Amino acid sequence: MQEMIQLLVNGVALxxxxxxxxxxxxxVYSATSVVNxxxxxxxxxxxxxxVSTIIQAQWPAALAYPAAIAMMAVFGLLFYALVHLPLQNRxxxxxxxxxxxxxxxxxxxALLVWDAWPFRVPSPFGDGTISLAGGVITVHALATIVITLxxxxxxxxxxxxxxxxxxMRAVAQDVETARLMGLPVRLLLGFAWxxxxxxxxxxxxxxGPMWFADVNMGDAVALKAFAATIIGGFGSVPGAIAGGLxxxxxxxxxxxxxxxxxxxxxxxxxxxxxxxxRPQGIFGERIADRG
Length: 291
Description:
Blueprint: H1 2-32, H2 39-56, H3 61-87, H4 92-114, E1 129-132, E2 135-138, H5 139-161, H6 163-173, H7 175-180, H8 185-207, H9 217-232, H10 237-257, H11 263-277
Antiparallel strand pairs: 1-2
Helix pairs in contact: 1-5, 1-8, 1-9, 1-10, 2-3, 2-4, 2-8, 2-9, 3-8, 5-6, 6-8, 9-10, 9-11, 10-11
């Protein structure tokens, strides 16, 4: 029982990271109909911005972590301006290829800046543990879950309780109608990319203490986040959250009770089952025509 509690908490914590990365997928896809295949590199970059501010610059945590998130916000706007905006009137497949190329460039750029040697990013919550129903749980795992819940609550409040959120949902529903209604579509799309980058930045900073920071880590995160969106329902915010938790739990429980060799096979096997049996995912997706 104690071991199960530890595994469940760790699985939910890892799943929270995948959920944040998947939300980055969903935010961009909902606003632009484009799958950002550089999303995993966004997470990697968030981790390495943390490496720069925490390890290399040795700033205090109260400054280092907000600075890393601010860097991600700026990067999200730059990515929108330099990658998406010049290609937005091209076929969707062209924009997708553009994100793939940008992701490769980001990965190689990170290799030049930070080198191939992995870093161990310290947790802002220390290495402490607490006892929960007899199980030993790291403070970082619990903090990851709490921070993810707060970010999800903040996203919900933004989308459903503010004029900005309503405008973003209008653009996601129909770009041309939103433009005819006088909404600043370009600014709203830019904010969507900024928001996706911020969520990826949080995912990167939270996963850093769980894994070694490596320039290739984004590929693994992207694949798991993509699987999470398929399982939960592509384009669905609740689906991204549920899918991320499912993938995280499968990965941790599969590694513990079967073999770490097959943990990825289990996650992607379930994704394939969803594609075959329920392609719309757990929560499905509302489909609408875009102008």
